[in-house]
Amino acid sequence: MRLHKVRFIIAGFIVGMLYWIIEGLLHYFIFNLEGPLMEHLFYPDPHELYMRLIIFCLFILFGAVFDNITERKVYEEKLIESEEKFRTIAEQSVMGILIVQDGVIKYANESLSEINEYSIQEMMNWSPSELTKAIHPDERGIINERIEKISLGSKEIQPNYIYKMVSKSKKLKWVNAYTRKISYHNKEGLITTIIDITEKKEAENLIKDELQKLKELDQIKNDLIRRISHEIKTPLTSIYTTTNLLLNVYKEEFSNKILDFIKMINEGGERLKELVDNMLDVYDIESNMIKLNFKAHNLVDILEMSITTLQPQIVKRQHKVEINLPHEVYMDVDYDRIKQVFLNLLINALKYTPPGGKIFVQLQENNSHIDITIKDFGVGFTEQEKGKLFMKFGKIERYGKGMNVDTEGAGFGLYIAKELTRLHNGELILKSEGRNKGSTFIIRLFKEIYK
């Protein structure tokens, strides 16, 4: 029992006792009763005792009733105050607010009216069957099912939901609604807060549409590149093969001047052929069309073969290649593709190391992986360049200060090397302390390959 309630009952008891004593005193002196006063106060005749007890109980009852009336009045005042606060907040809210009890709308604010374009009075007059008239027909079944589950206290369903709404003027709107059970005027009901997210949804849909268009354009671009590359590759192969034949078999039949022209055509054809091959590789990588043929190969042999293939360029630029390789290290790899990775990184080192420079090649085997390191002492990379290096078309104009380096290329080599390494369940790591401080590429191949 609460303290103030006890106080009212005690007060009734005290008033009753005072009445008992005062009435006894008055009765004793007015009627000049004989005998001790205390006997007349606490041991009156039965009829008088009965009357005093009734009045005494009435005082106690009055205290209890008065307490209940006071408590109810305080409760009603707090309820009115609470409702006034709710209405003030609700009317100032940008969210639509709706309270439903027994299938009837008991409250709706102006923000909700602005969202669905129905007046508050119209909504208040809706019958239970009309409660979903502002909801898109495709959504009504789901909304009714959700409301029923929330009403039953189901905890399996999330209280918020995004759905389509149709306004009075037949405009399609997107809203985010949050529904939960409340007690309203001492009865259970449902309160729903609604936020208009139409602009946000339209922006999202616009972004999706634009992304889809970009994907389609990118696909068209890739298809065009592939078709053009295939169309170019055939005549390029003919030009390159023919000029090779002229230079190696029929060179005695031409003057030095003509041989120089043929050599220019041959070198240009070789560069174009390399570019076309790289473009086709990029297309295949992005289209997931590259299929690797994993077999056990000696990585040391592949590395040595790659260095031998590039021997003419090494001699031409007077480079010194130092190697630190074990006798053999076998691993499941695609021979052609891993050799392509080695060649791309070796070519990169040759191009960006000034003539007479040094290139270091090393292979180390660990318990979990194998590291192939290709280190040069050339131009190097800045921190900004490192972020763009492995991107498609990620060619960086790296001119070394006072260095004679080869800067030709389209920027495909390192991108292809990185992607082919990834397809081998590996990673390509770059280390460089900055401009003119050289660079180190580490091809890390993990021994557990997921084919």
From TrEMBL:
Q: Please state every residue range assigned to the domain named Histidine kinase.
A: 227-449
Record-listed E.C. numbers:
2.7.13.3
Q: Which residues form the signal peptide?
A: none
Residue ranges of domain PAS in the record: 82-154
Q: Where are the transmembrane segments?
A: 7-30, 50-69
* Gene Ontology molecular function, alphabetical: histidine phosphotransfer kinase activity; phosphorelay sensor kinase activity
Supply the enzyme class, top level: transferase
Keyword Manganese attributed? no
Parts forming coiled coils: 197-227
Catalysed reactions listed for this entry: ATP + protein L-histidine = ADP + protein N-phospho-L-histidine
Entry's Gene Ontology cellular component terms: plasma membrane
- Which keywords does the record carry? Coiled coil, Kinase, Membrane, Phosphoprotein, Transferase, Transmembrane, Transmembrane helix
User: NCBIfam families annotated for this entry?
Assistant: sensory_box (TIGR00229)
The identity of this protein, by name, is histidine kinase
Q: Which organism does this sequence originate in?
A: marine sediment metagenome
Q: What is the lineage of its organism?
A: unclassified sequences, metagenomes, ecological metagenomes
